[in-house]
Amino acid sequence: MSESGETALSFEGVCKQFGSVRAVESVTLAIPSGQFVALVGASGSGKSTLLKTVNRLVDPDAGHVVLQRREVASVPLARLRRSIGYVFQSVGLFPHMTVAENIGIGPRIAGEPVDAARISALLELVDLDPGMSTRMPDELSGGQRQRVGVARALASEPSILLMDEPFGALDPVTRDALGERVLDLHRRLGLTTVMVTHDMTEALLLADRVLVMEAGRIVADQTPSALVAGAGGAAAQALVAVPRHQAQRLAELSQ
Ligand SMILES: Nc1ncnc2c1ncn2[C@@H]1O[C@H](COP(=O)(O)OP(=O)(O)OP(=O)(O)O)[C@@H](O)[C@H]1O
């Protein structure tokens, strides 16, 4: 972790309701620059909704979201989204565009197209052969597509990376390798990263800090080592019980 002490992203009393569902309920939180945060919790607890308030895919009913000292609501939408790398589970590559065109789409829309050397460098960042730049998305494996999604998210040189279940659809080996790669990029590029995941093992192994959401609220805010040591309360410990139990069973097998 290379935290500068400066706050990169903060939520102040953020609320979002859909009809009668209180998806996000009074979330107040500050994320220092350079931190890798995992956001975990049961399905429907509000993780994606909270993440989407940062790039304004969701506008809160109340409260403020502040990114790099500017309230996101006051930043022109295109500029805001260019300053944020966003990776989501379904990747959303354009099927009729090559890998290179997909990676360069953000800068191109902004009128600052990237050259072939930059595309190659971005592909290398995510461990893909630059020769893949001319392929179409349907000529890639799921893991390769997700790597292209990460390269695309990094193309505008964002300082913050938001990931919503980025590895959810991948096999465990690919998932592990890509998680390590993203952690490496997070460190090397000095990013601030917020990752939504259902996988507590992934959260514990990748993040500096784990936030647990329940019914729209943050109910635990702990380091991985504190969580493993038993901190965070009942909801957090119910999630930690899964990897703990698996680790015990594996240890028994090796005896
Ligand atoms: N656009 C929407 N319209 C109506 N309800 C919504 C909308 N988006 C989310 N919700 C509801 O808000 C609640 C929180 O949803 P959200 O997607 O943030 O949860 P989550 O923790 O990310 O869930 P999952 O882990 O299943 O992705 C859920 O009850 C969901 O049905």
UniProtKB/TrEMBL annotation:
Gene Ontology molecular functions: ATP binding; ATP hydrolysis activity
ABC transporter domain boundaries: 9-240
Keywords linked to the UniProt accession: ATP-binding, Nucleotide-binding, Transport
GO biological process, one term: quaternary ammonium group transport
Keyword Cell division: no
Domain of life of the source: Bacteria
A Pfam family annotated for this UniProt entry: ABC_tran
Keyword Transport applies: yes
Signal peptide start-end: none
Protein name, as recorded: ATP-binding cassette domain-containing protein
Protein's organism: Qipengyuania gaetbuli
